[in-house]
Structure formats: structure tokens, C-alpha cells
Amino acid sequence: MPPPADIVKVAIEWPGAFPKLMEIDQKKPLSSIIKEVCDGWSLANHDQYALQHADSSNFYITEKNRNEIKNGAILRLTTSPAQNAQQLHERIQSSSMDAKLEALKDLANYSRDVTFAQEFINLDGISLLTQMVESGTDFGDMLSFTLTAFVELMDHGIVSWDTFSVAFIKKIASYVNKFASDISILQRSLAILESMVLNSHDLYQKVAQEITIGQLIPHLQGTDQEIQTYTIAVINALFLKAPDDKRQEMANILAQKQLRLIILTHVIRAQRAINNEMAHQLYVLQVLTFNLLEDRMMTKMDPQDQAQRDIIFELRRIAFDAESEPNNSSGSIEKRKSMYTRDYKKLGFINHVNPAMDFTQTPPGMLALDNMLYFAKHHQDAYIRIVLENSSREDKHECPFGRSSIELTKMLCEILKVGELPSETCNDFHPMFFTHDRSFEEFFCICIQLLNKTWKEMRATSEDFNKVMQVVKEQIMRALTTKPSSLDQFKSKLQNLSYTEILKIRQSERMNQEDFQSRPILELKEKIQPEILELIKQQRLNRLVEGTCFRKLNSRRRQDKFWYCRLSPNHKVLHYGDLEESPQGEVPHDSLQDKLPVADIKAVVTGKDCPHMKEKGALKQNKEVLELAFSILYDSSGQLNFIAPDKHEYCVWTDGLNALLGKDMLSDLTRNDLDTLLSMEIKLRLLDLENIQIPDAPPPIPKEPSNYDFVYDCN
């Protein structure tokens, strides 16, 4: 007969004694259990003791987290968090340097536990650490452990960041310059500066006064990717929290310091892979840079503003006049107006009489006019060719440059999500945007030429305008997904994605979707579908057996903790546990401390229904995080919360868990896999294979050739 659900069998260690095997009744108060353990070893004052996990985490067990104790867990009897905090508070003030160093090392380790952190903070421990930093007497490992403990304690969100003095900020800022060779001190100093900026407006102003972009730039020119990541994170934080009127000023400073070129040379084109965290920080920088365009994007043109109207005159002049007309040119005002109206029509504006009215819609507002002027000035030959080419066509086949530019600018802003805050989980940066100081304008110039080319290929008329825009969007999106490394490479990708090629791709996709709709084929589909679904189910379960590394997101993203979860080979137990860092490959079952029997799972919930998504905090409201969140509910109130690394893993895990519970797999991935496999299976079954013997085993893999001289690069 299985033991009651409230009874957990554990081993408890005590230094110098044999471990005890005992059963813990989860209904009994924790203090009673600790008293029982102390009595067994004849220890007095049981209120000065506590239980903690005997693994690398050393986390204390409290009434809040006691439900996480699993059968077979190894626990340790130790001094209570209050006692431990008091002892460490005294030890870190020791006059012996060796004793102080050992105490700070222990403090850095224990500070990861919120229970200990609360007790140490109650003793005014944060103030003690800041005084030690401000005194400037500690260096090397001692300073490194002090800063590590500080970062870990602050990470729990118990103490407000607003409480720190200018002297402390000055000291941390000085470490960024002074300890460039000491990686651990530099890393923690950058992490503290980033947190200060992100968590307090007052501290942002103080940090901005103490640290300059010029002081941060040298750290990007090194070879340590982690330091580069922390440095870009600080720059991003300063950029994100800068007041609107200061943001453009900061962007100008970044341009002066050639930040883009330094990142391109020392990070993007360095001879090493870019890890996820660096990719995220580059994505954030990309978003913040493009968000500088939001002001122009949301600014309507004032038809009465002469300076703005002069831009339209300039567009007309470049296109139609070899030289600017003198103000006292001959001809009546009416004649000139008539000529201007004719030229504005050729330029493709909707309002021929007053084209300024075309720029009153936001978005794209004045940004569209800025793009048009940039194209006309920096790619003058292409601009003149497009305008004159279309003005000489029949009316019904001309591509309206003005209208196209306005709609294209609006589309590009949507694609690049101009004006939206960066996502907490996205890593989607594009290297090509780091290859030019005016990357958005150059992006527009390439795309407006693409639009004109596609218009001609489609032999479009004004009625086909929206169809052309849809095709152009598809061309741009497909080219972007290949992550071209430069704008020239992006241009060549678009050359290969002609309208004819898009039609072929669409036709191929349509055939895959609509193939074989006759009744016999549909009946065959129905017959083999359960077989395919079983195959998908087995694949999902096999992936769960392999396991996945998940991230524990918190408000300070780069202090991430990792944990791993995998299904046992017999599909009866989920093994999971915390990791120090992201693993390379699978993590064996025996190294994962916790278990959850599949039979105990009551439900799997996703998105807003997840318990960890109902908590307060800006991070929890993030749309991308919501789309990757799922939870396993078990027992009366137990829960295991996940945030998948990407959409694919989210689909794999939700499908696999639903399959374990005997429910339908409803993810987009399952739908796509089912369509693909069904289509392949039906095509195979309809092949003319009469008198052809299909082997049971796959053919052997041929030997490698003696050389590869026959290989050449098609590009």
C-alpha cells in the first residue's frame, strides 16, 4: 500500500553523526519536526536550528516552500537563518583578513537564499556591505565576494534601490574603470550599475553623471563576451531610462563614439558564436535605436510650415530640374502652380495640389518624407530613374512614388515594431542594421526599389496597390528571416525573391495545403491520421525524455538561474532540478534532485491561467512571456511553473504533457507536423510502386569522397 500523500521519506544529515532516515508529516508544523530531529541527536534549543537542502543550493526549508520536499530528498540540520545571519554579520567584520575573506565567500553563497537574505537585511547587512565598499580598503577576491553578496541580496527585491548614496555610486562607477583586468569585479560592478539605472529614476541621474559612454566603450573592445554583454546592458539601461529630450542626445554621443562600428567589429563579426544573452542585448539596442524614429513617425506635417514644404519642393527639384529655378522665373503664378501640380502627380502624391496633406496620417507622419528626401539625395540616380520611368508610363501602370513611399514607411515601422518597448525574451537582432549609421533609411532605399521592381513584374495598376504591398511585405519578411549579415546581402536575397519566385513558393505551399481533396484521398487521410498522431505523440514524449533547460526569469534578467526538467524513460516521473549554468547536452536523471510522478498531475495550464503569470510586475505582463508560459498543477496546491526558451519548445512540452494526460495535442506545431507527415505519407502511398520492392532497412551511407574538388559556392 503506498504511503499517504502527506508523508515524505527523507534522510537528514548532521555533522559528525550518521544520517537519519525519517518520515516527515507535511501536516505537522515545521518547528515540531525540527524539535523531533534535535531531540534525536540530544540537541537543546531547537529554535536555533533549521532544515536546509543538502545540495549545492543550501536553501532553507520554510513553511512556504516545504511542499517542494520530495521523497528521497537529503536534508541537513543546520543553524537557523537568523543565527547564521548574525554569525556572518560578525564574521565579515573580523580583523583577520583570512577569516573575513572566508566569511564573505560564505555570505555570497548564502545570499542566494531569500530566507537567509531577509534575516541578514534585517540586521542592516546591506548598509554594512555598502560601508565596506565605500571605505575602499578591500581589493581582489574580498571585493569580488562583497559585490557578489550585494548583487544577490538586492536581487530578492526586499530593499529599495533608492537608498544608496552618491559615494557608493561613485565607488562602483570607479571600479568600471579601475578594475578592467579583474573580470569578476568588473562584471558585478556593471550589473549593479544596470540595476540602479533600471530600478530608480534618481539613481539613473546619478549614474549618468558618474559613468560616460567613453568609459564603457573600451570594455566592448575586449575578448570576454560576458563583459561585453554586461557593458551593452548598461548602455541599453541608460538609453531606455533617458528622458525623451535626452535620448536623441545620447544617440548622437553613441554615434560620435562609433559604438555601432565597435559592436560590429568586436562582437558581431568576432570569431565566436553569439550567445543568447548577447543576442538579447543586441536586439534591445536595435529596438531602442529604431524607437528614436517614433517622434518623426507620429508627427503630422503642418501644411503651413514653410520649412517642411521646402522638402517637397526639393523632391520636385531633384526629380525634374537640372538646376533650381530662380525665384524671378518667367511665367505667371497660375502657370507655375499648374506645372507644380503636374509634377506632384508624376511624383505619385495623392493630393496633387497640396501634397503636404499626404503626410498628415500617423504613422508614418513626417518619417515618410524624411525617407523620401534621404533617397532623393543619397541615391539620386535611382530616385530620378524611378520617378521619370513612372511618369512616362501609361497612367494605369505607373507606380506612384509618393503613395508607395508613405505606405512602405508605415509597413517597415510595423515590421521593425518602431515605438514598442523591447521584449524580455526576444533575441531577434539583425546584423545588417549594425553595418550602417543610417540603417533604417538605407533599408527603406532598398525596399522602395524592390517595390518598383515588383510593381513592374506584376504589371500592376493603381487598383492592385494593396496586392503589390502584400507581395513586397512577403519578400521583405522572407529575406529578413535569413538574417543577412549586410545590407548588400539583404539586397541580393531580395533579387532572388522576384514576384515569379514568390508565386512559386505560394503555389508550392498551396499545393501542400490543398492537395488531394478528392473523397477517396480524404478517406485515406482519415484512416492514416491516428497512425501519424501516434508518431507525433512518440516524438513529443521522446523529446520530454531528452529534457530541456528552462530559465528562471526575474526582474534582473541577466542574473538568470537555470533549471532542467526531463521525463523518465518509462514515462512515469518528471525529474527536475536547479542548475548553476546552462548545460551542454542532456542532464542525467540522478543529478536532478526533485521528482513529480505523472500520476499526480491534475492539469496543465498556459498563458494567463498560469499561477506565475498572475503575479504583479512589468515582466509578467509581457506578451512574449505570456505566450511561452505554462504550468503543471498537482496535489491540492502544488505547481511547477515553466517559461519555455522559445515557441517550438513550448509546443513540444505542452503537447507532450497533454499526451501524458491522455488529452489532445492542440499546438500549432502538431498541426503543421500532421499536415506535413500526412501529405508525405499520402504521396508515398500514391506512388506507382508496382513490382518495385521497398527494402525494410535503409541503404548504407556511402563512404566520404577522397576530395571535395567538385564542390563550389553557388553564390
UniProtKB/TrEMBL annotation:
SUPFAM superfamilies: ARM repeat, PH domain-like
Entry annotated with the keyword Translocase: no
Compartments where located: Cytoplasm; Membrane
Record key words, sorted: Apoptosis, Cytoplasm, Membrane, Phagocytosis, Phosphoprotein, SH3-binding
Domain ELMO: 307-480
A cellular component annotation (GO) from this entry: cytoplasm
Coarse class of the protein's main subcellular location: cytoplasm
GO MF annotation list: SH3 domain binding
Pfam families on file: ELMO_ARM, ELMO_CED12, PH_12
UniProt GO BP: actin filament organization; apoptotic process; cell motility; phagocytosis
UniProt superkingdom: Eukaryota
Protein task: Involved in cytoskeletal rearrangements required for phagocytosis of apoptotic cells and cell motility. Acts in association with DOCK1 and CRK. Was initially proposed to be required in complex with DOCK1 to activate Rac Rho small GTPases. May enhance the guanine nucleotide exchange factor (GEF) activity of DOCK1.
Protein name: Engulfment and cell motility 1
Organism: Dromaius novaehollandiae (Emu)
Gene: ELMO1
